[in-house]
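One-letter codes give the sequence; backbone shape is given numerically. An example follows:

. . .
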Amino acid sequence: MLRFYTVLLLLTTFLLPLPVSAQQRYHVGVCDWMVLKRQKLGEFALAHELGADGVELDMGGLGQREMFDNKLRDEAEARHFKGVADSLGIAVGAVAMSGFYAQDLTKRDNYMELVADCFDTMDRMGSGPVVFLPLGGCGNDWATDKAKRAEVVRRLHDIGEEALRRGKRVGIDMPLDAKGNLKLLRDVKSEGIAIFYKWQTIVENGWDIAKDMKALGAKNICAIHASNSDRVWLRNDSTIDLLAIKRTLDNMQWQGWLFVERSRDTSMVKNVRMNYGANVHYLKEVLGLPYPTPQVALDSAGRALDYVETILKRSQKVTDELGITYTVEGRNVLNIVANRYFRLNDIYAERDSLIAKSKSNRQIAEAQADSKLYRSHFGFEADLSKYLSPSQIETVKDVMTFNVVKVTYDAQLDMIPTLKEEEKQQILAWLKEARELAIDAESSKKKHEVFGKYKGRINNYLSARGYDLVKEREAWYERIKARGGKL
């Protein structure tokens, strides 16, 4: 997978908003309520940052309200939202009435008014024709209660016919397999009603996604919620065979939107950018869809592919720590960090080559290398500053130097609890100075040597300030043992 990602990066050189092409068979989006941006203007910038083609925009909460909490009922607000979406090349692929996850459709006398509100909002936003209508609020008894089922069917027929009149199609969601869905659609008798297909439902019932979609048929699937329950990312989910699903969709000649609803890694469930960025990236990777290319080109020309992969893997530790790996911003930062490693390698390789020709060249070679390191050092931070805050740049430096600053500083404070504030500040300042040198060192050994010299300076400073480091260290060791730690 990393090799594929490397090749993908090698082919990309600049960043452009990608408008959704009418000829593109598949489009990938995210559900705005799940990425914590329900009817928030920032949902479009976030979708762009995640590399998505668009969003599934929600109508807002319902609860005990008469109508959806829909701010886009206001014409001016809708124009503002649409303008921002258009400027970023982000489409509103579908509109959701997610309030019906919890509200019973059969107990809402104003259901047609709610549907009309949804259709009107779609027109204002220039969205795609698909509506998501979950029926979770109806409970499970309607499947066996003939009277309730008849009422669900009657209301869906009304909704479907209105959808046809308005040029829309309403996708319903319930825990049925293809056979059950087809029977329900036959009962509803309206081409305005289809299935908003949900992979999670199929997996939870132990059914085969590819076989079930094929049995349901392309014409009956208006959109797909392309995710599972929260556990792991799609790329790590053994219950979803995305290649088999793609082959099935291709063979069915289905086309439309796939929206990521869940499939969050529960070890980082609150990290929206990592979770949804990873899933959008994987879907686009397997479906063969265009992905926004980074502004920062990877300086990989003429370098061995295995070496480039190694450097990308090392650089990804930075973006993983920042939580931005699978974002457009993350791809730019990844390339900046990787290019820094490439540049350091080039500088030291040139130095070594010059020395190899003649040992008398050592002093000149070292001076030239130092000059190039100095000039490029500040450019690296300047490049990062285009995408990262000062605190994030600190994180980049720490990851590239094995987090020695924090480890050493925390150890000093733990060893000598009586350190004065000015002494703490001096220790931290020297460690950060060491980090500035270590970040340009040619190997991990050399990086640690730099820190070693500064640790010696810190020890001399503390001794001069009257600290008996031998006694302080012995007492520290005893405290560590007492709390069950290891040296």
